[in-house]
Model the fold of this input.
Amino acid sequence: MTYYNTLVKSGISRRSVLRGMGAGIAASTLATPTYLRAQTAGKVKMAYISPATGPLGLFGETDGYTVQKIRDALGGTFQAANGSTYELEILERDSQSNPNKAAELAGDLILNEEVHLMVPASTTDTILPVMEQAELYEAPCISSGAPWQAVIMPRGGGDFDWTYHFFWGLDEALNTFVGLWDGLETNKKVGMLFPQNIDGETWGNNDYGLPVPTRAAGYEVTIPGYFQPRTNDFSAQIAAFKQAGVDIIGGITYPDDLKTFVTQCNQQGFKPRAVTVAAALLFPGGVEAMGELGNGMSSEVWWTPAFPFNSTITGQNSAALASQWEADQKRQWTQPLGYSHALLEVAIDILKRSTDPMDREANREAMAATDITTVCGPVKFGGTPHKNICTMPIFGGQWVKGESWPYDLKIVDNSVNQLFEPEQAIVPIVW
Done:
């Protein structure tokens, strides 16, 4: 795709300029004493790219925090499978929620910084272009934080040598949506909301997107055309939904777009019994921004403090990770926190198991052989559903009035994964 531009190789002067642009492309490294460096076999560079700013910033909200926690836990070094100790430098980069920026950063990190492992996180707009650069320039790349079809299918759907990814699949998310709706009494008419971008095109695909399992479950589907991201007018979509008499809204949006849509639904007298939207309803901040209208919204759930796994780096369970975040940040835990941690668990595990973590080929072999249980669950690339993919648990959740925080996310559906029982039943939205 044309907007995932490959980076033209550049020289020392460009690298110097990029390093000078600290505000736009911030790199954080852990200083290691000279005496410690002398005792290591070399410095291994890991590049962590995520949307720290821009419209997708909520997805990357926990990344910088988690990277620093992992730095602190490791103390700047790790021991590899060959018995040698290496210095670890984690270079953080902000994709600014822009796929072109993500591709540019990845190219610079691979070609100029000569990193040994690429680690893109959080959203297709960051992960996919980094994957493309990694495959092009033969750099090992481990990622998480986007439905696996969204980072595999746009590249042709075949097998890849350098890029591996762990997350749930679009099919699992779609079946979770249907599971949520099956828990409500409705007229089984669903209006679907999709943005005009790669996520919208994936979720709205008539061959494998949300319309497929929805129709198969006996629901009538209305899709009034895709909307432009960050639009300020959903009147056409709302009119189509009202005319079709839909009881349910499903799809994918980002937080600002959903706030605009829900506000205009209320203003125009359109009050569905369920609004189940991917992406925008993942975060407490996104729900709180809608005020009273946030109560009862539903979504897929990637991770919660109830997950029964411990960190391979800190030993903490999910509840402890969430509690520490809330104590340190004075903010409610948010779903990407678990995956920020799990992604770094896998990345560090790859380097530790590598026969030579300063060799990209050795790191690629270690990546393909991954078999680890993270705070988000087991990660192993066994060839199903795809050579380069490991699928992860997913649940259905609903936002309800909270106790310590304005809203709490409750698990209300486990039809796709039975890792634990629902906390309560889903209820209709009260407008």
Observations:
- Residues 65 and 403 are 25 Å apart (CA to CA).
- The two ends are 41 Å apart (CA to CA).
- DSSP finds 15 helices and 16 strands in the chain.
